[in-house]
């Protein structure tokens, strides 16, 4: 029988579970750290591993992008704070790239279990590559999971963050492969009168339920 690590992990639309943690930048409480920002909480299997190093460097290189989009980062793995600090220092010395965002030392696996980052079929002691995008109200808006042996796609993380923020600001939806500057999808009409208004509008009509506009 499979081991159940957590059967109440947060889902899209749920409030992100709050937590206190020891991190490379000091003690952290999620709700206080967020402070009106978007947050990307992401886990990696282990320090001093090659795929994880490329991913953490990728997040660090995008410091200005995330700051411009009012987004804070939090990393996590089931390693000690001393291992984290040593890893941060080693990468900085070898590449010049500094991981300035906090990295949680989750030795007791409390937060990894809380967020369903431990998946027994993959590993019972290492977190998979999970990504949680949390909005300023503390709601989980997007969840991604990658296995231990496949690195994440940074461009997709950035694309989905922008899409969520753009959707909130403009009350619209995004079509397949949406990129900044592309047309967006307008919600379908819910009344006959709204349908008539749509037909008389300047929207690009594919069908009555599928209409696009330029922001």
Describe this structure in words.
Mean pLDDT is 93; it is low at 1-7. This protein has helices at 30-34, 50-61, 63-68, 81-95, 110-114, 154-170, 192-199; strands at 20-23, 26-29, 38-43, 71-77, 103-105, 129-134, 140-146, 184-186, 204-207, 210-213. A hairpin with a 2-residue loop joins strand 9 and strand 10 (210-213). The chain has 215 residues and is an alpha+beta fold. The radius of gyration is 20 Å and the shape is elongated. The chain is built from 7 helices and 10 strands. It folds into 2 domains: 20-152, Glutaredoxin, CATH 3.40.30; 171-213, Antioxidant, Horf6, Chain A, domain 2 (2-Layer Sandwich). Helix content is 32%, strand content 22%. The strands form 3 sheets. Strands 5-4-3-6-7 form a 5-stranded mixed β-sheet. The protein has a 3-stranded antiparallel β-sheet with strand order 8-10-9, with no helix packed on it. Strands 1-2 form a two-stranded antiparallel sheet.
Poorly predicted regions? 1-7
The whole-angstrom Rg is 20 Å
Assigned CATH superfamily of the largest domain: Glutaredoxin
If strands are numbered along the chain, what order do they take across the biggest sheet? 5-4-3-6-7
Shape: elongated
β-sheet strand percentage: 15-25%
The H/E string reads EEHEHHEHEHEEHEHEE
Largest sheet: 5 strands, mixed
- Overall structural domain count: 2
Q: Please name the CATH topology of the largest domain.
A: Glutaredoxin
Number of strands: 10
| Portion in helices | 25-40%
Please identify the top-level CATH class of the largest domain.
Alpha Beta
Question: Mean pLDDT, nearest integer?
Answer: 93
What would you call the structural class?
Answer: alpha+beta
| Reported CATH architecture of the largest domain | 3-Layer(aba) Sandwich
Distance between the termini: 51 Å
Number of helices: 7
């Amino acid at each position: 029988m499979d081991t159940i690590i957590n059967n109440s992990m947060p889902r899209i639309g749920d409030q992100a579970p709050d937590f206190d943690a020891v991190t490379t930048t000091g003690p952290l409480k999620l709700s206080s750290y967020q402070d009106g920002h978007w947050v990307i909480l992401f886990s990696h299997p282990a320090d001093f591993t090659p795929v994880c190093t490329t991913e953490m460097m990728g997040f660090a290189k995008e410091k200005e992008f995330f700051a411009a989009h009012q987004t804070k980062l939090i990393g996590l793995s089931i390693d000690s704070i001393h291992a984290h600090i040593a890893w941060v220092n080693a990468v900085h010395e070898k590449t010049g790239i500094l991981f300035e965002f906090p990295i949680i030392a989750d030795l007791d696996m409390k937060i990894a279990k809380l967020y369903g980052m431990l998946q027994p079929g993959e590993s019972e002691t290492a977190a998979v590559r999970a990504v949680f995008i949390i909005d300023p109200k503390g709601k989980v808006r997007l969840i991604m999971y990658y296995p231990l042996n496949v690195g994440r796609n940074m461009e997709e993380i950035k694309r989905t963050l922008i899409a969520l923020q753009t959707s909130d600001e403009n009350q619209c939806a995004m079509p397949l492969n949406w990129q900044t500057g592309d047309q967006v999808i307008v919600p379908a009409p819910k009344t006959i009168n709204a349908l008539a208004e749509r037909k008389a509008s300047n929207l690009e009509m594919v069908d009555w339920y599928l209409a696009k506009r330029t922001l």
